Structure formats: C-alpha cells, structure tokens
Amino acid sequence: MPIIGFVPIARPTFDVPYAEEMTGRVYNQLQAAGYNVIGDQSLIMSMDDIDSVADTLNQHDLDLLLMLQASFADSTMVMRLVELVDAPLVMWALPEPRVGGRLRLNSFCGINLAGHGLTREGYTYDYIYAEPEEDSALTRLATIARAGEVRRKLRTARIGRIGEHPAGFDTCQFDAGALKQAVGVEIVQLELQQVFEEVRQAEPEAVSVVYEQIRGQLSNLENMDRAATRGTLSTYLTLDRMAETQHLNGIAVRCWPEFFTDLGCSACGAMSLMTDKMMPCSCEADVNGTITQLILQWVSGEAAFGTDVVSFDVHEDIAVLWHCGLAPLSMADPDVQPQAAIHSNRKMPLLMEFRLKPGRVTVARLSEVTGEYRLVIGGGEMMKAPPSFTGTSGTLRFDSGAQHVMDTIMNEGLEHHLAITYGDHSETLVALARMLNLKTLML
C-alpha cells in the first residue's frame, strides 16, 4: 500500500475539539483503508511544529503528503511544508453543517489560501472537499495515492536499451538527460552484439525447461523450426538475466533486422515472456514506449503491451491495434488458444499469435514530439472480434471515436507506438501527469 504522510493543521482560535474529532475520523479512515500512515492525529499549529513533523516525514520515502485542513489556517504552514517535504501534496478540506451558528472550522477557506500561494510559487497539488467517510473522497485519495506511488518508483527506475532504433523510426528517439529530469528514469545502454554473445552461450538445459513450460500455452509449438525457436527462448533467458544483473525495470530492444540476420530468430516471443513477468519490453528500441508500458503496469498491476495502431474504420467506429507477436500471453482471449507463429515478413519464429481479450483498456504514450514531454491518455473497449491480421491484434472502440483518435494522432504527429493495459486508469494517469508537471493530451 502507498505510504502517506499525514499532517493535520489548525489554528487555536477555531473550534479545536471539533477539529480534533474530524481529524480522528479522517485518520481512522486512512488506517481502515490499509495505508501506511506516517504522522499522527496531533494538530499542527505553528511553524515549529511544521519543522518537527517535516523531519519525521523526511525519514520515509513518501508516496503522498496529505495535509488535512482541520480548521482554518493561513498559507504559511503549508508553504513551509512543501519546501521541506518532497512528495505530491493533497489538501483535504472539511464541510461543516450550516446551522446558523459559529463557523467552527472554515476549512475550505484554508485550502483556498494555500492553493493560491502554491500556484503562485509553481507547486502542484490536488484537493479533496468531503466528509471523512465519503466514498468518493476515499476513491479519489486512492487514485492520487496510486499515482504518487508510480511517481516514486519512476525516480529510481532503470530502462535497458539494447542497440539503437532503426533508421527512419524517429518515433523511437529519446533524450536520456531530459527523461531523467522530467520523469526520473535512468537509461542503461547495452550493445546488441554483446547480447547476442550471451544468447549463444545460454544453457541448453535451461532453454529446454522454458520450452516445456510454454508448450502447453501455445498450439503447434512443435511445428516451429527448432533451432530458431530455441534462439528466441535463449534470448528470453538472456534478457531475464540482464534485467536482474543490471537492476532493470524494463527493456527497449532493437528487434530487427539483426535478430533475424545475425542470430537467426525472432526477439518477439522473448519480449512477450518478459512482459508477462512484469518486465515490460518494447521493440525497435523504443525507450519512451517501454517507460509508458512500465507506467501502465504499475498503475494497473497487470502487464502492458506496446502496439501499433494500424487501421481505422470510421463507419464502424473501430481501430485495430497490432504487432508482430510480442504481446503478453496474459492478454489472449481465453476462448482461443494462442499459437506459436513465424514473423510475417522474416519467416522466423518464435512469435505469439492471438487476438486480444475483450474488456476495458487504458491507452497511453509518453510523447516528446513537441520538444516537451506530454502524457497521451485514452481509453476504450476491446471488442470480441476475429483477428484482423496475423500476429497479435485487437479491435478497439475508443471512447472518443475512431475519427477523433485518428485526427489527433495525425494532426499532433504522435509516435506510432501506443501502450495498453486492461482496466480504466485514466484518472490515475492524469494525476501522475500533474505530479510530474507533464501536459496531457486526451485521445
């Protein structure tokens, strides 16, 4: 569960017993939800108190900083808090009954003052205005906390880049320094020929074990060229070992032409198996694509797939997502067994061929086409439909319509790879973009 720093602030000239009661109710909700809460219910009423609680909070790697406006207080304590504690801020204000008597808390006015000061100084924040037990507030807090957890993980994430992107695939360009500054991710460059050397040295017994493990998942595996198939599985073992020794969270692979011409096999099946192990892999050495997959994986708790959008039918209001065969097997339609396959152009195994399972999906892309990073976000319903092409494909009905998405991709000049994961996670992605000071573009 996310780690939340809890700071209830108040002013002694308001109704302190009522503020303490409301603080206790919020605190109890956090505990009941299972959060790891750093801080207690003691009201913070002075700058000295802020300095002391900041020292405590800074001993932990927080996913979220929750400031409860237990009663009115001016913006000075909040401004001091964000100077001292580096964590995404959520301010929670409390409604109070309109009974004609004293304004006991004046909580909203407190976050209004703080929001103005934070904005003037360039800080981002989210806010909640709700009773402690309100379901929508707790749902909103969970969404923001999940985004904060992803932000924290990105700051220590490492992406391996094997080789370079192919000529003419400028959509796979990246800027290591800018990525580190904007997102926190570190890029580790690995040489393609060194990877090939390790692949060739893979233990035959280990390759055979993997072969037996996937034989039950793929029909017609025995019909694939044996040497090329074992080359793909040796690649999987090599990528898996590199991920461990290099402490990687994802890998961007130059998958062609050298895997076919030099190694005599496809990288697709290896990347599929890695992605299903929650080590997202993208083809064509697409670093930003791998980072997008990693974000979606952490947001959803499930695998994420990097794909092309290859077809639109504006009359049926659908789009087709496709790639050669590197999608994770966990995304296969359970009604149809995946097949082992050869690459449609290079005629070598091992690829995973299946149609994507129906269900709600979230679509995203960390894009830098404008020279600044944006998080492209969309959603839709993966339809239960026959495969459109060989390889891995799915028929998607975007929420905003096929025409709008096609126009956006082309008018914005977006990258040709998008990433998907199952479930509706758009709100979390929007919260994450805000924390990272990234603009968003909605598909």
Task: Provide tags for this entry.
23% strand, six-stranded antiparallel β-barrel, Rossmann fold, L-fucose Isomerase, Chain A, domain 3, 18 strands, 443 residues, elongated, alpha/beta, 2 domains, five-stranded parallel β-sheet
Task: Give an overview in words.
The chain is α/β, with parallel strands linked by helices and 443 residues long. The protein has 2 domains: 3-146, Rossmann fold (3-Layer(aba) Sandwich); 158-442, Alpha-Beta Barrel (L-fucose Isomerase, Chain A, domain 3). Helices cover 38% and strands 23% of the residues. It contains 14 helices and 18 strands. It is elongated and about 80 Å long.
Quick description:
By secondary structure, the chain is α/β, with parallel strands linked by helices.
Gyration radius from CA atoms, angstroms: 25 Å
Low-confidence stretches: none
Mean pLDDT over the full residue set: 96
Number of helices: 14
Number of discrete domains:
2
Characterize the largest beta sheet: strand count, sense, and whether it forms a barrel: 6 strands, antiparallel, barrel
The top-level CATH class of the largest domain is: Alpha Beta
How would you sum up the global shape? elongated
Q: What proportion of the residues is helical, as a percent range? A: 25-40%
Order of strands, main sheet, comes to: 10-11-16-15-14-17
Strand proportion:
15-25%
CATH topology of the largest domain: L-fucose Isomerase, Chain A, domain 3
Oligomer status: single chain
First CA to last CA: what distance? 30 Å
Q: What is the strand tally?
A: 18
Backbone structural class: alpha/beta
